[in-house]
Amino acid sequence: MKKAGHLVVFAVLIMGLLLCTACAGRHEKQDGTVYNIYYVNKEETKIVAREYVSETSEGDALLEELLEQLSHISEKMDYQALLSKEISVEGHTLENGLLTLDFDESYKELRGTREILARASIVRTLTQLPGVERITFTVMGEQLMDASGATVGVMAADTFIENAGNEINAYEKVDLKLYFANETGDSLVEENRRNVVYNSNISLEKLVVEKLVQGPMTDGAYPTINPATKIVSVTVKDGTCYVNLNDDFLSQPYNVASDVTIYSITNSLVELSNVNRVQISVNGKTDISYRENMSLNNVFERNLDILDPGSVQ
């Protein structure tokens, strides 16, 4: 009897090992790269992530594949797709980390909270692509405007924050006075922007620098900063705003005087109530010169003498 009992125990052990092997086989890691695809929850208050494994490595094909996933509908009805088959991307470009997506007219059918959630899901999903750091939307070649009529502009994954489970609460409005170059590039012109909608998780100082990098929206105003420039950090202490940019800032593709660029940043930031002066650095270094004649060791203050007198609004 003891022998029979031993055989039974042995058989049970063998069956257990076989079952463990089968389970292990079912949980093998799939080949490919795991991405988070973002959808909206049933209540339409926030976006939720679902893992997706892709074996695609080629850039354009991977972009199209992830956009296709954004239009999938959950069989369990636990989330909603934010893109429909009718909304299509007409074209795209990727340059210096900035992905521009051009949608057809159907995109304008998205409104209110649903449109903001759609943007959040697309941006958070596609900024996982290699080489994509920022995204901007156009509709038939025109910059996307929000419900208030303001240009949406460049977005990154951290543009959309969760605030008590509701993405739309992350936005506020502000009026900005920015300074850009005149046509000849030797003076500054004012650009007043009303009701600029921005993410409340971003400081106003950083918002100002972002808008300067993006360039002007007014006729007669011209960009002052290389659009490839990336913002490393923007902080304020004791009235001094410390602007740290990457080394693309040192390259100037426009016909703009060096002091015009420096005071484009300085004058725009000093318009904020908590900023009196500006220190600019490149990758944390100030012991260098901007275009050989503007030492970044200096702390800059407002300069109204550089304004084009005929352009003050």
Describe this structure in words.
The protein is of the alpha+beta class. It contains 5 helices and 15 strands. It has helices at residues 2-26, 59-70, 112-126, 204-214, 258-270; strands at 33-41, 47-54, 79-80, 89-95, 98-103, 134-139, 142-143, 171-181, 188-199, 231-237, 240-245, 277-282, 289-290, 294-295, 300-301. The chain has a 4-stranded mixed β-sheet, with no helix packed on it. Helix 5 links the parallel strand 11 and strand 12 (277-282). Helix 2 (59-70) packs antiparallel against helix 3 and helix 4 (204-214) packs antiparallel against helix 5 (258-270). The chain is elongated and about 65 Å long.
Short recap of the structure:
This protein is an alpha+beta fold and 313 residues long. 24% of the residues lie in helices and 28% in strands.
Reading the helices and strands in chain order gives HEEHEEEHEEEEHEEHEEEE
Global structural class:
alpha+beta
- What is the spatial order of strands in the main beta sheet? 4-5-6-7
- Strand elements, count: 15
